[in-house]
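WARN no homologs supplied; continuing
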Amino acid sequence: MKEPLVRFSVAIGGELLRRFDQYRENHRYPNRSEAVRGLMRDALIEEVIDREDSEAMGVITLIYDHHAGRIAERLTELQHGHLEQVVTTTHVHLDERRCLEVILLRGSTGRVRELADKLIGTKGVETGRLVLTAASPVSGHRELHAGHEHSHDHHEHDAHARVQKPEHGHHHST
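OK structure emitted
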């Protein structure tokens, strides 16, 4: 059953309102209510991922020179040592020397950050970045997906993704 929406007022004006309206337009929110909901979810997600024991999803992007001493092997070894956290890896050749690797991780925020630091800190990595989000919805499922209709059940999709995971924990694309 869909929870009823509650209306509440916020008094705002001047430069803050002008900047908020510009933010809403830049991020293509259809109205102020959607923009406020988005900001609220973002704040709640930040609160969740600040806790080391909360369940999170992490996306790591790495760029490295694959000619740098055994870097591809070292990155693969690190991932093999953490198969319970590594969901999938995509490897893209940027040019004759440089590669982009995108690694999707799942686990406690602390463990995801720890593995990300090891991967990003691997000798030969030019640049690396971790983006974290909460693994579970931070608000009610229906509210989180208001206006978002699709034909699959998220739990079935998650199970399907685990079945599709490559046996060796990484995937190479060209």
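Residues 55-135+163-172 form a domain with the Alpha-Beta Plaits fold (CATH 3.30.70.1150).
OK
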